[in-house]
Amino acid sequence: MDPIALPLLIALIGVALAFDFLNGLHDAANSIATIVSTRVLKPQYAVVWAAFFNFIAFLFFGLHVATTVGKGIVDAAIIDPQVIFGALMGAISWNLITWALGIPSSSSHALIGGLLGAGTAKAGLGAVIWSGVFKTSAAIVMSPAIGLLLALLLVLIISWIFRRFTPHGADGVFRKLQLVSASLYSLGHGGNDAQKTMGIIAVLLYSQGMLQGEFHVPFWVVISCQAAMGFGTLFGGWKIVHTMGSKITRLSPAQGFCAETGGAITLFMATHLGIPVSTTHTITGAIVGVGASRRLSAVRWNIASRIIVAWVVTLPAAALIGAGFYWITRFF
């Protein structure tokens, strides 16, 4: 590697870790919104709780999602620093826009959209690995739907099990259980989301001949990404916490437990299968599920529909921004 390329490589890894930090900041609400809105933990304690479980997630999951992102979205042969820069800037720009507006969009799909945009700007649609794109796109619909159904099923099961409890007695039980469900959800969040950045850094290293043998994710990349996401979570995303925790529907501790557990199960399955899903989509679907279990009017559908629009727009918007940043690099 020539002396100019090494500083560029280091700078791009720094940008990737900045995205991971922003991902933790942006998606902190997904991990803590229910536990804060039900007043089980104060916000400052909830972010520490979530950040810890975000960080240790690598101990529980394989790196299947990182592999999908690294070589299953666009052809690894066309990856170069300019493509990675375009992908990261597309994702970061869209994250900042939606964060400023308080809209819980998907950091995951912003990154994949940015990668698709920059990759096709360089090599056309022939560089796209459609099987990976279809799998990821299907998850835009499937992950919130599964989260919704699981959360709804859990509400029904718990309502039957605790039918003889007073509301106050049930709240006391679920205030404790929510600590467990929030931990599981934060593990799922750290396990799935941090791996997307791992895949980006690993494919960048691979494209520059910095990995020995076949494509893999070095351990230092794993630890760096988990740490960056954990630190981002510590800073929280308070605008989005408000949207997720109270604007969509009001939650009791039992409902918060069902939403977090349904979301966590969905994330665990997706991470095991190597599918890069959106934690935002998943927990939103679960929250809508527990709200709809009371009555359909309990869900503020105008807020939910605004979030869904952001889901649909995220991937193409980030792709356009990513392609734009790739073309800017062509002038330097």
UniProtKB/TrEMBL annotation:
Subcellular location, record wording: Membrane
Keyword Transmembrane: yes
GO cellular component, one term: membrane
Keywords: Membrane, Transmembrane, Transmembrane helix, Transport
Transmembrane segments: 46-66, 78-97, 109-133, 140-162, 219-241, 303-328
MF (Gene Ontology): phosphate transmembrane transporter activity
A Pfam family hit: PHO4
Topology term for the membrane: Multi-pass membrane protein
Identification of the protein by name: Inorganic phosphate transporter
UniProt organism field: Sphingobium xenophagum
